[in-house]
Amino acid sequence: MPQTPDLSKYLDAGAEFVALTRTQARKRAQELVAQGKLAQDQVQGYVDGLVEGSRRRTDVLMDAVRQEIQKQVQSVGIATKADLVKLEAKLAKQTKAATRSAAKSATKNAKKAAKKQAGKKSAAKATKKTAKKTTKKTTSSAA
Q: Exposed, middle or buried by CB within 10 Å (0-12, 13-18, 19+), for 100?
């Protein structure tokens, strides 16, 4: 089975490519001020613009990565958390139904066994009574 690649280093490289910290943006702005291409009073706006652009590029990259991951997961057929939640709910429902059904079955079987036992006792009593009557008749006839 092939090993899955460690994507974290690629994601980190991509994030570094598009992510620009405020410190890095300020450094670039100071370089432009030193070269005379940017006035000192424009630095803050320039830094804010660079950082905002960096955030947008990061968001775009992360959205693209998320979409690609979702596509790959769907194409492979990996179960999602939502799929697992649905499956757990279905199993819980089926387990509950099976437990109820088993309890009903056990109750019915117990009732049947009790009736059968009662029937056997009645038959045994009737047999004893018949035997006593027969014994009495036989004893009375013999005397």
A: exposed
